[in-house]
Design a protein that fits this description.
192 residues; two-stranded antiparallel sheet
Length: 192
């Protein structure tokens, strides 16, 4: 059974033995592979791919952090607060309306590059950029699931897709009388 070693240590080990593995004979490769599998705990086929150079080390830099810097985040915070903390999917279509209004009233000053970034930012990216601000705004608590799921399970929810059922003009009324003088089993009496 292999010991648990960190990913950084595994990649250092790969860097140290990859040239020996590539230049070695078939028997050398088999011996190196056996040792590598025993130390890292990798599956044998995965270890072959890693040592053959087909598996690349994941890069540590993210292009999103470079593309959407702190200036995009600060502008998004202003937009989010101005929109009374709307969710990102609803904030996205409001950005073309809010930006000119905020600039007109002097609340936001943007250059053309930043404005174009704000217009093209996706709701998922907005969520990532606003995560910390939302946590602080909630007082450090994560959002709990509301009662909506229990309400949805309790009965059917009608949408606007069923316009013709029932047909327009149809009315159904039930009248009920509740009397405390009656037995608990007969509390409700239907009026016809």
């Amino acid at each position: 059974m292999a010991r648990r070693i960190s990913m950084a240590t595994r990649w250092e080990l790969v860097a140290a033995i990859v040239e020996r593995y590539r230049l070695g004979s078939r028997s050398d490769k088999c011996r190196i592979l056996d040792e590598f599998v025993a130390v890292t705990g990798y599956h044998r086929k995965h270890a072959i791919r890693v040592l053959a150079g087909r598996e690349k080390r994941p890069s540590g830099n993210k292009s999103n952090s470079l593309r959407n810097g702190s200036n995009v985040r600060e502008a998004l915070i202003v937009l989010w607060e101005t929109s009374e903390r709307l969710c990102s999917k609803r904030l996205k279509p409001l950005i073309p309306v809010l930006l000119p209004a905020l600039e007109r009233h002097g609340r936001l000053e943007l250059d053309d590059a930043l404005r174009s970034k704000l217009m093209t930012v996706s709701p998922a990216t907005m969520d990532r950029l606003l995560t910390e601000v939302r946590m602080v705004a909630r007082g450090g608590q994560r959002r709990r699931a509301g009662m909506s799921s229990a309400v949805r399970r309790s009965g059917p929810v009608r949408t606007f897709g069923d316009w013709n059922d029932p047909p327009p003009g149809f009315v159904e009324v039930d009248l009920w009388r509740i009397s405390a003088r009656l037995r608990p089993a007969a509390l409700c009496r239907r009026w016809c």
